[in-house]
User: What shape does this take?
Amino acid sequence: MLTNTAIGASALAYDLTLLLVSITWSKGFERGLMKDRAHDDAIGELFREDPDFATRYLNEILEEGDQADLLIALRQMAKAFGGVTTIAEKAHLNATQLYRTLSPDGNPELCSLIAVLKAMGMRLAVQPLHHT
Assistant: This one.
């Protein structure tokens, strides 16, 4: 049985896929060729063009609680918002340590997560669970 979270995450993933296909198609069409684009590049462009989408995307991942997905999303977002080095500077963090923190084996501390999100113009928030 699917939960509301699973349904919401699935719907968001489906919307993201459709949007990426649309962006990839339109950019390739505009250039007169249908060249494949790197997934992270397409996601990064989407995050830059629609920061509200980036926020919703992160919230869905946080709701699911999958740390690996969170680290992937944060790496993609860091790239989209100027790169890990730029985000590290804005967050007053060591760039090498931030690369390690956002790696697949990373385990970000709360203070680092808060600083990275702030450097990307976002913040971590707590909300009550909605029981129905």
About this structure: Helices lie at 4-30, 39-49, 51-64, 67-80, 84-91, 95-101, 110-119.
